[in-house]
Amino acid sequence: MAKSGLGQDPQSTAAATVLKRAVELDSESRYPQALVCYQEGIDLLLQVLKGTKDNTKRCNLREKISKYMDRAENIKKYLEQEKEEAKETPGISLRFCCESKHLRS
């Protein structure tokens, strides 16, 4: 998925590799790691875009960048929401987890 439309130059290859990993992490629900990979991959694609002269390739790169940015933004919103919910529900804490370990011993 990430490789289609990208050339064989080192930046394109790096972008494809990083974005492929982002998609894998995303599908495994490892969102913080996926977000980092999406961000790095997007940065690499932007560098490729700057060096691309062909208008068709530029258009394709813009579409890919937009798609990956949308996904990264959705993940970021989800992670922020999870963080807020964790602040609002302090009922289960590390202390509770530690206490329950002692109860089992």
From TrEMBL:
List residues of the MIT domain: 8-86
Keyword Cytoplasm attributed? no
Pfam families hit by this protein: MIT
What keyword terms does UniProt attach to this protein? Answer: Cell cycle, Cell division, Endosome, Membrane, Transport
Where found in the cell?
Late endosome membrane; Midbody
Asked whether the UniProt record includes Transport among its keywords, one would answer yes
Membrane-topology descriptor? Peripheral membrane protein
Q: What InterPro entries has UniProt attached to this entry?
A: Intracell_Sig-Traffick_Protein, MIT_dom, MIT_dom_sf, MITD1_N
GO annotation (BP), single = cell division
Provide one Gene Ontology cellular component.
midbody
Q: What interactions and quaternary structure are annotated?
A: Homodimer. Interacts (via MIT domain) with CHMP1A, CHMP1B, CHMP2A and IST1.
What PANTHER family does the record tag this protein with? LD24550P, RIBOSOMAL PROTEIN S6 KINASE
Question: Would you tell me the protein name for this molecule?
Answer: MIT domain-containing protein 1
